[in-house]
């Protein structure tokens, strides 16, 4: 049934941008016609299982594969020594300093393992079961080495994570506003300010825990090696496979079919991907490897894992004068694709929405005997936002000031944009006042404060806290020149093609590789809007390097503001090309043609022709204008001139049961400003999911290791991903201050919820308990930790 | 070596007779032997629920059942939910409410929801959340999944405009 | 994700099971009895157990169902949790088991997982052992020497260890009726799906505002479920008020030896048991 408003002529012309379109992607996913990599079966396909080190640090002194090789169904067993000459070293694309240290990173360890779970051999067998059975038969001799797991201990270099390195320090990266000329001296600010608050905060190690375990199929038959992988980055992966294994890039095709979530966790070139290629090349047969969930948690890259030593200075009136950030960032045992750059991405965000004049950031990248860390939703920016938002609350407490009032005193006012920050970025637009006002109203801030007061006065066993987080982030990664200045190996552009088929339907090819975000729907809206053609007539293609030859994939909330812009630019080129052909077809001058609703009309006449007709004319090519190629295709590459800066205000009402330590999110309000919205349905979904992950870091998730370096939270029994009963109903709203860094005015939404919500929750927990003497609780704020903090506060004598 | 067993199972309305190794899990039988790849595997500890199917009409985790245990029983997977080309109301509601993103948890989530609604035709939001505690989703934050299940319980009928009805409802209610 | 290979049998009578157990014992083969499989199969998939033979009890119909006897209910060991949580006889006569069963794992697991399976598995964090202990049920075992009856207080012997011998199986659990008692199972977890960090099962009888009977079971406060006898004794004869309940329940951790793990240390668990006991009793008392 079509509703009457939709069928009216006015509604038919309603612009696609901003429309609450339902997703094109859903039909196959809700009916089970999915194309996840593990669904793939190829003729003669073999199956792999990994033999992994049980030790976090050890020398491999011998491997006996005889029994495994003779196990039923096993065709071969490969060790690191077998492939040492061809496996190369896994890539790190972001050497943050010229003298960055990194160990060699073979996919199959050869001499030494540096974290528990590292691959030491691979079984190639006829079935998954046969491969798995043989894993137990591989006999590896290890000589255990001392392990270093704690970041602060690793910093002292008393125990080395690698015997081949003389220090655990990989790199030291510094930004100083006085040296950079973007601000004043932090030393002066700290020395001369009336108030200085110093804190050490901890970002626990968390695991992306995408729902689809990673899976790889490699087909070596034919002249081009084809890899299907559950990856966010088919294009980067293809390039890196070529570079790592010395295969001509033209001989490699990578396909990311349906991908079951990524959150940064599939922004990687994995040992298993390399190993599957090696196994397929050796056997000449298609090979598949699908990790188990336990393997995924154990060896998929992790996120966060930082110690943040912070000093904030201010006047007694609450004007912030400076911020010093000194980080220890846990690399884990190796540098993955962008491991070393993750904390540096945060370097530009610690000043957040505030305009204090002095800032210094120093980060030491440190090796430990744990799996390597890398991108996880927000990547560096959640850590920065957590630190500054926690510190603003600490400062407000120190000054006896309402934390919202303190923020308002220090944030960039809407009439001060564009604003060059102390970290050197130019924020194009923003309106923190508007977002905050809206959030306050939705939240009933004063009412909540009254309720909080009531519960305090009544000694209610369930105390109430209000958690505040005002945030901004840099999205739309990234202007290529900026990435170049940071020594990142690649650019930050995105590519698109638009092809009008002879029958009038349209193919849009995007280099942005979606894995749940809804690009097919959003890009269709963009093109429908620009070309004036029906949404239904557009097919979006992505995730296959043979179809989408160029692209830089999906991460960093970049797809719309960079990839979407490329799509629009390609659509514009189609219009311009079609104009030439249309003028020829209608024997009119180009200047007399008007383009609207998918047709060119000769001004002042009824004479017109549609894009489809033009495409067919180009296809038949019987009568083309001089010098015009017979097709209606175009391509475009867009390189952004600046980042985009979404922002927002999140308010959380947090109940803390002081008897059990249990934390309940009573109410969660977020007002995000992500600029112009193409599809509010998709935006809402991104916000919800982002909030869930951020809340979960605050309350539930942590990768916990025992003293030997074994992951204790190694399955979903102990690594707690919250379920439906554990998360609140989110109240979301938006303000809309268009970005000026791209024509769409879009900013990015994929990470906003995750970035903002973690500090909102922790600030709320502490706000509920500060009057009882609790000063800090490490994340995740488990009931046990909350209760112990309360007990400790009782013995140390309450509020100070 | 363990001897294989012969089983007869009705899956999505068709009868299958196969020899299976006793250790073959039901989910592996469905995916690898019957090609029913709509049912997915998300964990190895019976936590995530991605593999949820119906056994004689009630939800079970097919990764925590042997194929031999399904002998003589009727299994329904996500692939058997649509009837005569018409989506099951939950499939339609998941689409309409944007209750899926990557779609990996979706088959299990829909199967668990269907079983939940069989046992409780008019669940509250809290009951829906609790009823789905055996299914993990990492994308949606659950709110739209809960809304989708609620809408089916409430008998909401959707139009086919391709646009979310009541859209622009940016502010929810607490 | 894939268990080691094993042989599989699905007999239809208890006698056949006993014969198979005896044969396996003399052959020295490790056997696992498969009830609902919701704990066994995950352990086998992770290869923390690799039996030579799995005997599936799923085809023995006499082990399923709840029947009413004079003062007791007889519950078949293979009765699924879902049935325990929805059965009208249990709702009337054993509200504690009825309520506790509804908290086990998640709906899918409750559809497959069985009452007897959970009891024999004897996970200290499992939700059925403590309530069953509180009821003072009798476990009926079948073995080569015929039927053997074991009292609940003797049944749970340690971590994953019960009185069931290798050549026996649990067939039924006979549970006294607690008709008209107030009952509640207070479970504490960090996320809904999790095993209990601590839980307290409480059944009380109140006459004229005074507790006349009280039975409490503690989940995950030791290697076995425990009775909170100190609380029970303190409650009986006291007024059904918040103050007296709080005082009585402050004794909940007496005699417990909870483990320390990711979810909390022993000190925290001991504290938690007092809070949860109070809440369980308050709810059971309808306060």
TrEMBL record, chain A:
This is Xanthine dehydrogenase family protein molybdopterin-binding subunit. Keywords: Molybdenum, Oxidoreductase. Residues 31-146 form the Aldehyde oxidase/xanthine dehydrogenase a/b hammerhead domain. It holds the Pfam family MoCoBD_1. The keyword Oxidoreductase applies. It comes from Arthrobacter cryoconiti.
Automatic annotation (TrEMBL), chain B:
Pfam families: Fer2, Fer2_2. Transmembrane segments: none annotated. SUPFAM superfamilies: 2Fe-2S ferredoxin-like, CO dehydrogenase ISP C-domain like. Keywords: 2Fe-2S, Iron, Iron-sulfur, Metal-binding, Oxidoreductase. The keyword Oxidoreductase applies. InterPro entries: 2Fe-2S-bd, 2Fe-2S-bd_dom_sf, 2Fe-2S_ferredoxin-like_sf, 2Fe-2S_ferredoxin-type, Beta-grasp_dom_sf, Diverse_Oxidoreductases. Residues 5-81 form the 2Fe-2S ferredoxin-type domain. This is (2Fe-2S)-binding protein. It comes from Arthrobacter cryoconiti.
From TrEMBL, chain C:
PROSITE patterns: FAD_PCMH. Residues 1-180 form the FAD-binding PCMH-type domain. Keywords: FAD, Flavoprotein, Oxidoreductase. SMART domains: CO_deh_flav_C. Transmembrane segments: none annotated. Pfam families: CO_deh_flav_C, FAD_binding_5. This is FAD binding domain-containing protein. It comes from Arthrobacter cryoconiti.
